[in-house]
Design goal:
single chain; 224 residues; mainly alpha; Arc Repressor Mutant, subunit A; Tetracycline Repressor, domain 2; 2 domains; 11 helices
């Protein structure tokens, strides 16, 4: 293993440890010593990658969208549905994503910039909605920038409710219900009828994205 590979692995170990501590205790109560203990690394190794607890939190916040890309779809609204259901599935199953969302939703942390995930999601939604509009998938009165913000805000509310009531156990069903209520107000009826929005969609897209990642990894290895 090269020095660079070891550094990357150490950074990921630290991020996973930080995510676990942030999820369990929240940003304010989490301590560097707890993260060090969880990661099993030296203080020097941690500070080589992250200068402070705030930098650790920002690392966790930006990590939630770094692993999986939704496969491209002919219908851009289906692609938006798939991105949403995939995120919900990962939120339900991935500690890093759960920690990132907890940090992003924690309104008590005035000194922590929590805007990144919201801006990233709004940007993704806007891009897909604008493409959907250019393909004639949206109703004439829809303003993509407004819809993108409503979409992200509604998802944030639904996931917060699911977390508060039962630790995300019903999140996929709630997000499916959200999509079935929201999309008819912005999409052409024929497009809505063609969309796959069931609660099982998240796992389906996850497996598809995972297979594509493995395929691309194998191709990259072969090219090397």
């Amino acid at each position: 293993m090269s020095k660079q590979d070891r550094a990357i692995r150490t950074r990921q170990t630290i991020l996973r440890a930080a995510a676990k501590v942030f999820e369990e205790h929240g940003y304010q109560a989490a301590t560097i010593s707890e993260i060090l203990s969880e990661a099993g690394v030296t203080k020097g190794a941690l500070y080589f990658h992250f200068q402070s607890k705030e930098h650790l939190a920002q690392g966790v916040l930006t990590e939630q969208n770094n692993e999986f890309a939704v496969p491209e779809r002919a219908s851009k609204l289906q692609e938006l549905v798939d991105a949403t259901m995939l995120h919900a599935y990962r939120l339900q199953t991935n500690p890093m994503v759960r920690a990132s969302v907890r940090l992003a939703m924690d309104q008590r942390q005035a000194n922590l910039d929590r805007s990144g995930p919201f801006l990233a999601w709004s940007g993704t939604a806007l891009e897909l909605l604008e493409k959907a509009q250019s393909q004639g998938e949206l109703l004439p009165q829809v303003v993509p920038s407004e819809t993108a913000d409503v979409f992200v805000g509604a998802f944030a509310g639904v996931q917060a409710m699911s977390q508060a009531l039962n630790e995300y156990e019903d999140l996929l069903a709630r997000v499916s219900n959200l999509l079935r209520h929201l999309l008819p107000s912005v999409a052409q009826p024929s497009v809505v009828a063609s969309l796959h929005m069931s609660a099982s969609r998240g796992e389906t897209v996850y497996k598809e994205a995972e297979a594509l990642m493995e395929e691309h990894g194998a191709l990259a290895t072969a090219a090397d």
